[in-house]
């Protein structure tokens, strides 16, 4: 990912509807399971916005392979900021109560996502939880994927199989961002028509009213996700548990 993209994320992560709504979804998911302070790994922390939010649940280790991203994370005052790959983590076995891995394993630099999942499994304590999010559905591939170097977009079935192969028990899995999938599909179709003239990510400012409407839509969807799994969407979200045999 280009350095300018990290700067854009840093500027938008507390304003843009997607970062706000998806961040709240993560916090709500964790809050329903976490009852006391935990040792938490943010695997692929990016600019550290989510790591900072996770500190309410315990001690957070923010790990990323990109130095530009880590500089932004350090500026947020995070205590444990570490340069490392999610495929080769510098931690002992059974170290973390919770691992959060958000939009990381899809990246071109993660050449073997199953091996990376096995590494996340290794560092989790028995009965520890993995919260995973990945981009969904190849039909939604577009300019954004070029900019952020997407290797693959997933289905829920595929993610579930890979988690099980890596040792996890799948507690829950669903698509997310369902209600905005049709507008996104239209946007992707227009990108293909424009071709190489259109080349930037989805991380850019929106008019305030549109931004707030989209936020409210995703916030309503977050409430639905508490009770049902959605049949399609632009993301896959999954919760896995380490239950050694």
From TrEMBL:
Gene Ontology BP annotations: methylation
Keyword Amino-acid biosynthesis: no
Gene3D superfamilies: Vaccinia Virus protein VP39 (3.40.50.150)
GO terms of molecular function: S-adenosylmethionine-dependent methyltransferase activity
Keywords annotated in UniProt: Methyltransferase, Transferase
Domain of life, per lineage: Bacteria
All copies of domain Methyltransferase type, residue ranges: 41-131
Matches recorded under InterPro entries: Methyltransf_11, SAM-dependent_MTases_sf
Protein's UniProt name: Methyltransferase type 11
Species whose genome carries this gene: Candidatus Gottesmanbacteria bacterium GW2011_GWA2_43_14
Lineage: Bacteria, Candidatus Gottesmaniibacteriota
């Amino acid at each position: 990912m280009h350095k300018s993209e990290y700067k854009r994320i840093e500027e938008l992560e507390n304003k843009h509807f997607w970062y706000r709504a998806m961040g709240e979804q993560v916090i709500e998911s964790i809050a329903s399971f976490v009852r006391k302070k935990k040792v938490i790994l943010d695997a692929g922390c990016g600019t550290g916005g989510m790591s900072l939010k996770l500190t309410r649940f315990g001690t957070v280790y923010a790990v990323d392979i990109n130095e530009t991203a880590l500089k932004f994370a350090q500026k947020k005052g995070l205590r444990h900021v570490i340069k490392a790959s999610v495929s080769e983590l510098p931690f002992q076995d059974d170290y973390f109560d919770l691992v959060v891995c958000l939009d990381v394993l899809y990246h071109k630099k993660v050449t073997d996502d199953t091996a990376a999942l096995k590494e996340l499994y290794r560092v989790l304590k028995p009965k520890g939880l993995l919260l995973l999010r990945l981009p969904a559905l190849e039909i939604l591939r577009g300019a954004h994927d070029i900019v952020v170097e997407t290797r693959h977009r997933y289905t829920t079935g595929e993610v579930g199989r890979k988690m099980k192969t890596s040792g996890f028990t799948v507690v829950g899995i669903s698509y997310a961002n369902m209600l905005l999938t049709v507008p996104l599909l239209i946007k992707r179709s227009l990108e293909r028509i424009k071709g190489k003239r259109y080349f930037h990510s989805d991380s850019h400012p929106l008019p305030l009213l549109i931004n707030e409407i989209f936020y409210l839509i995703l916030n309503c969807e977050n409430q639905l996700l508490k009770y049902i799994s959605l049949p399609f969407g632009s993301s896959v979200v999954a919760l896995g548990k380490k239950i050694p045999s």
